Amino acid sequence: MSRIAILGGGSWGTGLSVVLGRSRRKHEIHVWVREREIAQSICDARENKTYLPGILLPACVQASTDIGEVLRDAQIVVGVVPSAHAREVYTLALPHVSPEAIIVSATKGLEPATHLRMSQVIEQVFSLRFVPQVAVLSGPSFAIEAARGEPTAVVLAAPASYRVFAVNVRRYSSQTAEFLQEEFAGPTFRLYTNDDVLGVELAGAMKNVMAIAAGACQGLGLGHNSLAALITRGLAEMTRLTVALGGRPETLSGLAGLGDLVLTCTGALSRNRYVGVELGRGRGLEEILAGMTMVAEGVGTTGALLALARENHIELPITEQVHSILQLGNSPREAIRAIMERPPRRE
Fold first, then answer.
1. Within 10 Å of residue 113's Cβ, how many Cβ atoms?
2. Is 207 annotated as catalytic?
3. Mean pLDDT in each 10-residue stretch from start to end of the chain (347 residues)?
4. Which residue segment(s) compose the domain that 114 sits in?
5. How far apart are CA 321 and CA 324, in angstroms?
6. What does pTM read for this prediction?
7. Does 146 share its domain with 228?
């Protein structure tokens, strides 16, 4: 039986605890949360009433505000914290994580201040003690649907050079992603493996920005033509930056790219799309965010992506216009006009 530590008790952290609690392998799952009332709700009522109400948590799931206790003897550590706070949480976890543990990032965003991917943040933090084994979990996955047991398919990405020790079978397993694939898979949770960590992480970050743009289109009352164009050109934009930085174009046509892009641009449960819808209706960003319990990663990631693109001389017209709405106060209608009036070009 593997001991899994989940850092973060928001909707996706809680949803993953449910999914992994139902996996084919037996697990002991411990969730770290900041708020004592959430930990008590999980342990006593078997429900996260704040972030995932109505979902019964398996008996193997426990929660605590003591990060050392949660991480004790953990063979797998899953990070599900907002990108802006990831470095702080991983630094807090550093003394308690075993060098043999695999660290899985399930955060879809870039660190705003450094525009680093989450795997890079993890490597920077943990290299103070040891060279970490890092994997990335991404793909189209609304927490509530996965937790309800609705069929969900995601991607596990890890560098092909990693090899891990499978504690529960007392032998060396295959590559990290394949090992995690076996550990995490369940009757309604299917995982595909990939070694394009950069591509998977950039796709997960960029699709949130596109979702804000998609929501703005709806908020403005635009129809399916506009949404189809946005998704298509958004995918081209995501692919352009990913390939320029060393990722593979086929990653963007898979679950981590196109799959997650379609979900977050069209699904009513998307937090980033919600922000865009409300912006399109004329509400201010501060007012929108103040009324949200959960984080919309695209808001903080947009500027980081734009800075990354400019450093590498890559044009991201949709990202640039989303940034103009979020940071410069431009109206969504003006932003769409700016995109439509760009010089003609070949597809």
1. 11
2. yes
3. 94 98 94 96 96 96 98 97 97 97 97 95 96 96 97 94 46 68 96 96 97 96 94 96 97 98 97 97 96 93 94 95 95 89 78
4. 2-195
5. 5
6. 0.93
7. no
